[in-house]
Amino acid sequence: MKNVKPFYKTWWFIVIIIIIVLAIIGAVRDNSDKENTSNDMQVVEDVVGDKVQEEVVEDVTETTIDTSVFEFATKVDVTDALRTNQHVTVKLVISEDSKPGMQVQNIITQTFDFLQQDDIKDAKKITVLVLQNDIKVTQYTVQKDNFVPNETDPMIELVLQASEIEQMSDEVKQHGESLELW
Prior knowledge:
By secondary structure, the protein is of the alpha+beta class. It has two domains: about 5-40; about 60-180, no CATH class. About 35% of the residues lie in helices and about 30% in strands. A hairpin with a 2-residue loop joins strand 5 (about 125-130) and strand 6. The longest helix is centred in the N-terminal third of the chain and has 30 residues, at about 10-40.
């Protein structure tokens, strides 16, 4: 009688097992690559004119920046690009039924506390964008090197001295001018 090998010792069974093992390893690697890629990608909203458009940006650091100082915003998003260009962008959405001028005044005052946190100590610029109903009502950029907090001057004044106001709606502009803020 011929000596028959068990099927698990045959060359074809061993080849099938090797193929299956390689397929499993490939699938596991593929999933981990997808997870790493999704962690490095974030949707960042870019403002063109008065409308907001979304685009995917790679290598944006996951943020741990505290935005709790912005009490009057209904939504706060932060784009933390400290590692790439030492810039932080804060997008604040205000309530539909609120007065934008007063809200912007409050947000600029709250920016005073935001600028002093350790999480953004390496930032050179902080851009604050305020939206209402998906329309930009204000955008300003603070040059952090120009921001010098003190106990004597009003907080809003110190923030504005270090800032460039890039856009303001007419309503916000009129509010600030009536109070001689900007």
